[in-house]
Sequence to fold (296 residues):
Amino acid sequence: MVQEKTRVALISVIAAIFLTGFKLVVGILTGSLGILSEALHSGLDLIAAVITYFSVRVSDKPADNNHHYGHGKIENFSAFLETILLVITCVWIVYEALSRLISGNTHIEVTVWSYVVVISSILIDINRSRMLYKVAKKHNSQALEADALHFSTDIWSSAVVLLGLICANFGFYFADSISALAVAVIVLVVSYKLGKRAVDVLLDKAPQNIIPKVKEALKSYPDVKHFHSLKIRVAGADTFIKFNIHLDPDLSLKQVHEICDKIESGLNDLIPRCEVYIHAEPQDSCHLNNEIDDYL
Fold:
């Protein structure tokens, strides 16, 4: 599992190195702000890809004396760092684009290489985003998913730059700066999404997509008379679930243990890589009816 995640992360790094160098050379030769903004974007993509590469290598290390819940959150931290890098990209793009529009210095030289680099970028980003999404979904990796979302957005930003080049080819040179601003808007949207998800996990926000699944699963066990104090947190690819259940007080310790094992096994089948902590209590220890209530 770790080898597959590391392999696709390394491929992403290699692709980022190629695209950054290619865009930078063509952008300098043509003077296209759209391509230069894409080069800077790809440069930060490279940094993000390197961060992701090292994070997926570390994230699956088992828990140790210093990290009792494993190292999974390093993936979420790397996604947060990607957000910061993306925002830095936007600041430079917006500043440069507005400066050119205000000064009127929007002339660029459009060559065949301008089109080659942008179209190549689109094709490469389509392939690597698909590859990253597939592995991210398979291994529940937020770092790889963040990279995939990042590069899928690059496809749209490159398409905007391509449109700007086409307009510039017909003499509408200001379209290049406008396309750069459009890239910045797209990047900001992605930054917000990535940042929010990363911060939510780092602050242990309960994953809203998992809570209903756990509640419905617990309701399916007839031995569970009541459950409460449901707590769920995520760290990288791992999910930690904790709750209290109330059982028939006449059950033996062995029977209670078997019920808890059954619930844990069921939740593991439902949610990949989850650790379940169950506290069993006798039903008559509190004055409750036999309904299964929601989270308290």
User: Anything to note?
Assistant: The chain has a mean pLDDT of 81. The domain at 2-202 is CATH 1.20.1510.10 (Alpha-lytic protease prodomain-like). The beta strands are 226-235, 238-247, 274-282.
